[in-house]
Design a protein that fits this description.
The protein is of the alpha/beta class and 574 residues long. Helix content is 23%, strand content 30%. The protein has twelve helices and 32 strands.
């Protein structure tokens, strides 16, 4: 027999019926309704860097072609609809081009007129042997970043040096040449006998340097560590650090101002991170880590026993899919990853240069009761809350992937043939929602009466959790606004909340409630749009002030959070 989730409600009774504005109409919240309460404080916990709402514009070769599929066929230009959607996303930082393939490819394949080659770019072969064009290369990407006002992260091939595919000097100099192509002025004195890459850039139509600030050395280099340990044995950590040092020296000899991101957090990196931090700590700006979950779901366990997935109710699946992060004692999304803990201990910063709710059913026999891209999108919101709570060390986040049409985790779905208009997918739309509505400071937030549930299933990387909050809320602020962010994870219940902002003076007399909602079915039914998620907003008025025992009157807003939704309530300062 299946045990359904347990719901814990702590009701408070309203003294009277209260009114909230819902979808432009007045909705009545009846007396006796459950009301979770939140009080936003002035205390700043830490700052939030807007770059945690960044994106990863991958150019993969296997099973997906990424941004190459978002071009006007036969050109190097983005489809107008794709470009318009990118503009709306307000992306602060974009990583490019890889991804796994970056450590198996030559960056020169993605620029024109390379000496000793044909003028046009070749077709490249990815790490699994698949072919991919290079129509969207470095010039197209960096010009797009300028157009969008986004900073760029460019990833360089580290495998060539680390696994001795080339001499270390040759591999490091090759990475430095990419820095020269991006950043060196025409006529600059380049180190050694380096080719005049700035003049080549000018020949390709760009005389001014792109001034790329961030370069990441390697991608998911934990995948190479097993081979590295075979090659170097106990000396592997020292050799890893030696390779990084050579790359950093070569790249900074071209542009000393660049900031370096190193990939040294995931997998079997024991001893390596400590060695790198000890030897190179002041030369590295960020240590990179990646978060993906739940991956393949081939079976479901409950209390250690396998449960037929097709027997699990849709609501139970939904509740499990909301629980991809770890959770604190209140049931709120957090990160307790060893790399985050090490960063706090050692005082360095983290860049989550790839992340997403990335998973799929891989079942035999009957299908499950729920398989929903929108569920993945709302699950991704939990990651964003966890990142904001860890923003004392996490300063960069790049959601994977920005443009695509096959993997299902892209922000923008694009038709490679250019016949069907593009649309947003839920996980990317979720990050866009937060990028458009957030503050740069995380504020203290008191809460009470927040309903929770128990999540008993193991589904791929999703673990059982004793307590998951139905309402996962936090507060941020900037100079102009206070923001209340809330995920309503409830599958079937709209939930009422009271938000107290009495700590703040001179607020406008109403707030704006932004809501992201969506449907469960991926394929549109007749009359439904292809886009699954939708964003709306409405004005919400404050409740009448309450004065208790001569104290200053409270300033509260009562609002309903729709089922299966993410909300941001913006309070504007006068």
């Amino acid at each position: 027999m299946l045990l359904t989730h347990r719901i814990k409600f702590y009701p408070t009774v309203f003294a009277a019926v209260c009114l909230v504005f819902c979808f432009g109409q007045v909705a009545i919240v009846t007396a006796g309704a459950v009301d979770a309460s939140f009080s936003i404080k002035k205390e700043v916990i830490h700052r939030i860097d807007p770059r945690i709402f960044g994106q990863f514009m991958e150019r993969p070769s296997w099973g997906e072609i990424g941004v190459e599929g978002g071009l006007v066929p036969g050109t190097r230009k983005l489809q107008p609809g794709v470009l318009k959607m990118l503009e709306e996303m307000e992306i602060p930082i974009i990583r490019f081009p890889g991804g796994t393939d970056v450590d198996f490819m030559d960056w020169r394949d993605m620029v024109d007129n390379v000496p000793g080659r044909a003028a046009q770019r070749p077709v490249s072969t990815g790490h699994k042997g698949h072919k991919v064009t290079n129509n969207f290369g470095y010039d197209e990407f960096l010009e797009l970043c300028e157009h969008l006002g986004a900073e760029a992260i460019v990833v360089v091939n580290f495998r060539d040096g680390l696994l001795r595919k080339k001499s270390l000097k040759e591999a490091a100099d090759h990475a430095a040449a990419l820095v020269a192509y991006c950043n060196a002025p025409v006529g600059a004195k380049l180190p050694g006998r380096m080719y005049d890459w700035p003049s080549l850039r000018a020949k390709n139509g760009r005389a001014r340097p792109y001034k790329v600030k961030y370069f990441q050395i390697g991608n998911e280099t934990w995948a190479f560590v097993k081979q590295l340990r075979k090659m170097e044995s106990d000396a592997a950590p020292r050799f890893y650090a030696k390779c990084l040092a050579a790359y950093i020296e070569a790249m900074r000899s071209v542009d000393p101002s660049i900031e370096i991101i190193v990939d040294a957090q995931n997998g079997d990196m024991s001893g390596i991170v400590d060695q790198v931090h000890k030897q190179l700590g002041d030369k590295i700006s960020y240590f990179a880590t990646h978060f993906y979950s739940p991956w393949n779901i081939t079976k479901v366990l409950k209390n250690g026993r396998q449960v037929p997935a097709h027997e699990i109710p849709a609501e139970d699946i939904w509740n499990a899919w909301m629980a991809v992060t770890r959770f604190d004692e209140e049931g709120r999304s957090i990160l307790n990853h060893s790399g985050i803990q090490a960063a706090r201990r050692n005082g360095y910063k983290v860049g989550v240069t790839e992340w997403n709710w990335n998973g799929w059913w891989r079942l035999s026999g009957s299908q499950s009761a729920l398989s929903s891209s929108y569920a993945k999108g709302l699950g991704a919101a939990g990651y964003l809350h966890a990142f904001m709570r860890a923003a004392d060390v996490i300063e960069i986040g790049c959601q994977s992937m920005l443009v695509g049409n096959s993997w299902g985790i892209h922000a923008i779905w694009a038709d490679a043939k250019g016949k069907t208009p593009p649309h947003y997918m839920p996980t990317g739309q979720m990050t866009m929602f937060y990028s458009n509505h957030h503050g740069n400071k995380l504020l203290a937030l008191d809460s009470s009466n927040v309903p929770t549930y128990e999540q008993p299933y193991q589904m791929g990387g999703i673990r059982p959790n004793v307590k998951v909050a139905y309402i996962d809320a936090l507060a941020t602020a900037d100079e102009k606004r206070i923001y209340f962010h809330a995920i309503n994870r409830s599958f079937e219940k709209s939930l009422n909340v009271t938000v107290d902002v009495s700590a703040f003076d001179s607020l406008e007399d109403s707030a704006v409630h932004h809501v992201l909602e969506g449907r469960l079915n991926d394929a549109p039914k007749p009359g439904e749009p292809r886009q699954i998620g939708r964003i709306s907003q409405r004005r919400v008025g404050f409740s009448p002030p309450i004065n208790v025992g001569g104290a200053s009157p409270t300033l509260q807003l009562k609002v309903t959070l729709p089922q299966r939704s993410v909300s941001c309530i913006e309070f504007t300062r006068k």
